[in-house]
Amino acid sequence: MKKTLTFILVFLASYAYACQCPVFPPISEKGCERYDVIFFGKVDSASACDPKGFAKVYFSIAELFKGSVEQQVNISFDCSTECLMSFAKGEEWLIYSKYKKFDLLEIEICEHSRKNFNDDAKDIYLLAATRTFLQEKDFIKTLLGIHYYIKPNDLNKQHEEVGPQNVQPSGWGKVMLLLISVAVMGVVYFVTRKKK
Known about the structure:
Strand content: 15-25%
Largest sheet: 5 strands, mixed, barrel
Oligomer: single chain
CATH class of the domain at 23-149: Mainly Beta
CATH architecture of the domain at 23-149: Beta Barrel
Radius of gyration: 27 Å
Structural class: alpha+beta
Shape: elongated
Strand order of the largest sheet: 1-2-3-5-4
Distance between the termini: 85 Å
Number of strands: 6
Number of helices: 6
């Protein structure tokens, strides 16, 4: 009976410590280099967890410190583990995010992103950050400055400047490609036949 009880307690204890993150140093200039987009914003909404284990949170950015994004932005986060982040409409966050791929920002729980608590005594990030939310926000603002948002159509302009990525030849172009291909195949056929 004692062995069973000990096993159960050890098993439950492993779940109690499942959400521990490695200790991150307080954010610094070097730490900011790890992130593509840094901003202070308010949560508009959050989606449900999709079958792949990810959800999106939608922010209105109040102050952009690093990166080129629109004022409304969505960020992906892992919602499949016990250590999932939770967001509620109206919450203020200081977000440190990275691009997972083009135009898809992602945040992780074991990084520097933090929620603004009205009462510093409830601030769970205070111990690791060594700064209050407002002190960290002011530090980032002093370090990086305020950046302008990109306009919604600026992203479309960037795509247009790159140019079309899947250009198909015109009707005559297709005919010419077909004729050239047949001619090359004929030459290869006759060259290989003469060698035999």
